[in-house]
Write a structure and sequence with these properties.
The structure is a single chain. This protein has 371 residues and is an alpha+beta fold. It contains nine helices and 18 strands. The chain has helices spanning 21-38, 48-54, 88-95, 111-116, 132-140, 144-166, 174-187, 245-264, 271-284; strands spanning 2-4, 42-45, 70-75, 78-84, 100-105, 126-127, 191-198, 218-227, 230-239, 298-301, 323-326, 329-330, 333-334, 339-342, 345-348, 357-360, 363-366, 369-370. A hairpin with a 2-residue loop joins strand 14 and strand 15. The protein is globular and about 70 Å long. The model is unreliable at 4-12 (pLDDT under 50).
Length: 371
């Protein structure tokens, strides 16, 4: 294994690592606190979620469906990133935060073994599975620079939704709408992790991968986009007629379910108890008691689409500056935005003032765009 000590200056147009030294110092201390509690000297980070969080936004993937092309050993003597020899040049020029030591191995070597061998302690490093709950807690409270990046991504993604859906027509295909969204997301420097669309002929599917079907009279679009490691999630609806009274009623009621979830999302609340409130909210607002079983309900957001999805088994406690994406749904309706819990309450990140909205329990929430 070799260690890279210098890197050529990147050209002016090259991407630079987004990491904030101040934020990274806090993150390192959070991991050191995990080491102190476990009585260990190092921790091996290997998943995309953990790596992009700890490196504060560095891109450590090639294939969106593949494993990361880097591993990081957080040791008491410093941070060590190990990558393959064919990736090291780009990592050094564009993704390596200040203060992180870069090491290379042949493209056919085992990253995890190489990184683990760098530890200075007498025991093997902790692996993520040993401290999964503690790492998740360390990611909960977003720091100032990453909060700013997240807010910018959310606003840009909401604007993309407005632009693309405003140009849609009944004969636009689901693939056509999804491809237009994907093009705009990539042009914004983000990665479209999820692209869903259903026209009126496929309205019964809650996770509708797009097809060649036309949108028809009403359609839903869902985008989950990642930039600098952070994932913003958004759902929007468009229709080409006035809608039916039943549709408009269901849209209002699902927004009321979401409002109840927002009311329960306060510092100190446990996620399993919020999940109980979600189940009750469906009944209160005229949906069947089984509706929560038809689709996951969302949960904390940030460096994963959901971190984690909320169930009765997740007892994490809500903290200030934590991000969430709740997504209650019913037959033919769904509402979804990425929000952050601040001292002044919930702040919607995926918002575009051009999109039609109604005030629900003091918060502007998206309506269906009627063209």
């Amino acid at each position: 294994m070799t260690q890279t000590t210098t890197a050529a200056a990147p050209p002016q147009e090259a991407r630079l690592a987004p990491g904030s030294p101040a934020d990274r110092a806090v993150k390192r201390q959070r991991v050191v606190d995990i080491l102190d509690a476990a009585g260990r000297d190092s921790l091996l980070l290997t998943t995309n979620t953990a790596l992009t969080w700890y490196l504060d936004g560095s891109r450590v993937h090639i294939s969106l469906a593949g494993d990361p092309i880097a591993a990081v050993l957080v040791d008491r003597d410093g941070d060590h990133l190990v990558t393959f020899n064919n990736e090291a040049g780009r990592i050094a020029a564009e993704e390596l935060p200040l203060g992180v030591n870069l090491h290379t191995v042949p493209w056919h070597a085992n990253l995890h073994q190489a990184a683990a061998a760098l530890g200075t302690g007498s025991r093997p490093p902790l692996v993520e599975g040993d401290v999964a709950a503690q790492l998740r807690a360390a990611r909960q409270q977003l720091l100032p620079a990453e909060s700013a990046r997240y807010s910018l991504l959310g606003a840009e993604l909401a604007g993309i939704m407005t632009d693309v859906l405003s140009a849609a027509r009944p004969d636009t295909t689901e693939f056509g709408l999804a491809s237009a969204l994907a093009a705009r997301v990539v042009a914004a420097g983000a990665e479209p992790l999820v692209l869903l669309c259903n026209g009126s002929s496929r309205r019964g599917f809650r996770h509708p991968l797009p097809t060649h079907a036309p949108l028809g009279r009403r359609a839903m679009a869902v985008v989950c986009a990642r930039r600098d490691g952070l994932v913003a999630n958004i759902t929007r609806w468009v229709r080409f007629d006035a809608g039916t009274p039943e549709e408009r009623d269901a849209e209002a009621r699902i927004a009321a379910v979401e409002a109840d979830i927002f009311d329960a999302t306060v510092p100190g609340s446990r996620l399993d108890r919020i999940f109980g409130e979600i189940q009750s909210a469906y009944v209160r607002h005229g949906f069947g008691a089984e509706q929560w079983e038809q689709h996951h309900q969302g949960g904390p957001a940030g460096y994963a689409g959901r971190d984690p999805r909320v169930t009765t088994d997740v007892s994490d406690t809500v903290v200030l500056d934590q991000a969430f994406t709740w997504n209650p749904s019913g037959p033919g309706v769904k509402i979804e935005d990425t929000v952050q819990l601040t001292e002044s309450g919930l702040h919607v990140l995926t918002v575009d003032p051009r999109w039609p909205a109604a005030t629900v329990n003091g918060l502007d929430r998206p309506l269906t765009l009627q063209l």
